[in-house]
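Researcher: Please generate the 3D structure of the following complex. Treat every line as part of one assembly.
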Amino acid sequence: MLTLPIDEPDMMCEPRFGANYPRETLPENLERDLGRRDSHEEMSNSDMREELEDEDISEREEDEDEREGEPDANGLAKMRGPRRKKQSKGRHERVKVRRQEANARERSRMHGLNAALESLRKVVPCYSKTQKLSKIETLRLAKNYIWALSETLSAGKRPDLLAFVQTLCKGLSQPTTNLVAGCLQLNARNFLTDHNGDVMFSGRPPYDSMYPYSGSDVNAPPGHSSGTVDSSKPFRHYNYGGAAYDAGYYENASPEGGSPHLDGPLSPPMNFNGIFSLKHDDPSDYSKSSPYGMRYCGVPSRATLGQNSMYRASPEARFPYDLHLRSQPYQPQAEMHGSFHN
DNA sequence: TAGGCCATCTGGTCCT
DNA sequence: AGGACCAGATGGCCTA
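Model: Done. Output below.
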């Protein structure tokens, strides 16, 4: 549907998207519009403007002030109301051309907006060329992603996968939630979206077999009663891999409610160089060097992820997620790149 | 076929 | 005056 290539330079940095398109690019669109006109068909824009200016001169003489001519109920001509200019052919054409120029500008502006949105798609999790997130879902996911990363930064600890994904999926539609789950090779049914759009944990985390709890009850994460999970409460955090995580790390976590850790003037903290090794590579290299292994993950279809989904985490599966601290070297990203390649 | 998503057109408003 | 921005309307395409 885009009529302009989406691989434009990063347009998110441009203050005004539409203004980014030079006027020289407009005639192509404009000509398309102008091609519908039944007159001036062989005329360039400049030619047309010149002609219209000429017409303006004669217009001033030609246009006559006109009062509402229709007679009223008594048969008398209406003499009140604003004077209306008679629309000469030239004036009508000029208005038409101006409208078409405005349409072309508006199209360009929207193309710029879409290009920026496309570049946003590429930097949020679960980018797929074959299955694009909708505009609204892209914005929601981006917001959640920023929020989750901010939380991670402010906590200064390795984030919990499921809680991170829950934050990512908050408010997203079920298909998008499935998409995120698929990208992360999680079972989407483990974090269901309730009627409020809140994502709730409703099952055993898929990686608990990979990262068993250090506690005695291996079936119940800290904060949950043995063997049962209260899905009405936010998913809490586990210990895995021998590392302890705050039970309240994402407590009250909500992208809607603002970060509880970001009350200061520097909100949100974006100390990329201090904690994360954030690289902004060309999208084509994400699969090789992205600090976030979720990028460029291929999802073959919009099919709902079920219990038998190919994305279901298996004990052999690696932690499909390598958001990590510099001070905490994590397993090589190369192990999982194959899974995420688009 | 209904609903979601999208591009485009259009008129209004605001700003320079 | 002209351009950017915005929101409503409309029609096309796709999918469940």
